[in-house]
Amino acid sequence: MGYVGLCTAVALANKGYTVLASENNTGKAAQIRQGIPPFHEPGLEPLLNKVIKNNRLEIANQTEDAILETDITFITVGTPSNPDGSINLQHIDSASSDIGKALAKKHTYSIVVVKSTVVPGTTQNNVKKTMEECSKKNCGPDFGLCMNPEFLRQGSALNDTLNPDRIVIGSHDTKSGDLLENLYRAIYSKKQPTYVRTTLSTAELIKYASNSFLATKISFINMIANMCERIPGADSKTVAQAMGLDKRIGPLFLDSGLGYGGSCFPKDTKALIACSKKLEYNPQLLDSVEEINKAQPLRAIELCRELIGNLKGKRIAILGLAFKPNTDDMREARAIPLINGLADEGAEVSSYDPVAMPAAKKIFDYRIEYAASAMECLRNADCCVIVTEWDEFKQLKPEHFISEMRNPAIVDGRRIYDPIEYGKKIKFRAIGLGPREK
Ligand code: UGA
Q1: Residue whose CA lies nearest to ligand 1 atom number 8
Q2: Considering the domain boundaries, does residue 71 fall inside one?
Q3: Contact yes or no for 260/331 (Cβ under 8 A)
Q4: Residues 222 and 178 both lie in one domain
Q5: Which residues partner with 306 through β-bridges?
Q6: What's the whole-model pTM score?
Q7: What is the pLDDT averaged over residues 376-396?
Q8: Does some domain include residue 437?
């Protein structure tokens, strides 16, 4: 019942299916049973409440019950990284063994669908093998197996689940794939997405290729942004807008900023690099994507220095802590290297995020200050860095910064302000914005 599991369960239950979910963490299971989502996701709470109340979604007492009493089992466990960046399959292996043991007792045909992000070969070599060993049954005639990657984004998870661009179904055999496709066709009865039917390993790779490509787009535009900052009159935001008008390029994921974070892009890029190296192919492009992303949040520190000089003893306001707006997820948040870098230079940090403060406190503890509002965060600061593009921050006018800050200066790390309007009234620098043309 992580991100993918809970959102998928709620979406299916809301479409009228009966969903039995399994969650080992008893505290989390109890919270979900009360209709309270364990993470912040817009729109999830009312839908979760509804499907818990009308008994469409139940949290099973035992994983076995969830498998024995249903027709389709989705594996949505986490696939974290090992210290060397390669994928850690311990949860996949234990889920496969639990499912295999339950399948041994099952008298009806059902299918198992891997939704977790797993490197090519995992569904065939780990999931299938373990389930066959534990069930003493044969994949194909006795039970079905599919790999069906998930493309939802945090912050718009329900909308993404309900309006997918495409559904990718990798299947062990045609029968399994047809069953899963029929489920989706029934769900999306009015507006069918495009279905891509393929092998298990191609489906696995489609997920990594998609995430790595989006990460590449972001690092590419950040590379252009870094060039723009050195070219009088240049602006990466306009470069991206114009590039995006070319249908072959497209406008999305070309926002330059402090880089990508979260639980997916950093982990998946590293896992694909490790997987490729294991195949004895050096994925040079992805190494550069990562390198650019690692340096990007530190660029905000350089811009602070350019605006207000030595940072020792200066007070820096950080607006936005989580890895992006509309989430409280701090995993690989760009605020982490940024704040650590500022602290290393002897700066004092005040911070604010509309929903991620409790999560941030667990990471930074007493080392930084936590404000109750954006305005309180700005109070007496010498420079403000915009780390995520919350609407609330977009509403702030130059006057708000001028009235609260000791020394009004802004580093716009997500390009949310008009440089002409703000630059007239406040010391202002932005990612991807070159100096004025003389
Ligand atoms: C990402 C993918 O977009 C989903 O399709 C995928 O299903 C998901 O990973 C996953 O594998 O589970 P997510 O991590 O929720 O979704 O967030 P995104 O909206 O993709 O943003 C990721 C990071 O990229 C954020 O830190 C964001 O600030 C950054 N970003 C995004 C940019 O810096 N520039 C952009 O133009 C877009």
Answers
A1: 153
A2: yes
A3: no
A4: no
A5: none
A6: 0.95
A7: 98
A8: no
Q: What is the pLDDT of residue 295?
A: 98
- Confidence class of residue 242 from pLDDT cuts 50, 70 and 90? very high
Q: Please list the residues that pair with 349 across neighbouring strands.
A: 316
Domain hosting 83: range is 3-198
Provide the number of structural domains found in the chain.
2
Which of these, 378, 393, 387, 411, lies nearest to 304 by C-alpha position?
A: 411
Residue bearing the CA closest to ligand 1, atom 30:
260
- Of 233, 410, 221, 231, the C-alpha closest to 308 is 410
pLDDT for res 436: 85
147 and 262 assigned to the same domain: no
* Exposure b/e, 272-297, CB count within 10 A at least 16 = b: bbbbbeeeeeebeebeebbebbeebb
Q: Given CA atoms 327, 332, 338, 343 in this order, what sign does their dihedral have?
A: positive
Token pair of 278 as six digits = 């294991």
Q: Which of 264, 377, 383, 384 is catalytic?
A: 264
Which residue among 117, 166, 211 is best mutated to probe the pocket of ligand 1, counting the most ligand atoms within 8 A of its Cβ? 211
* Token pair belonging to 348: 């004092």
Tokens, residue 261 = 């974070």
| Index of the ligand 1 atom closest to the CA of residue 117 | 11
3 lines ligand 1 (CB under 6 A): no
- Residues 256 and 415: their CA atoms lie apart, in Å, by 8
Residues 423 and 356 in one domain: yes
- Report the 10 Å Cβ neighbour count for 235: 19
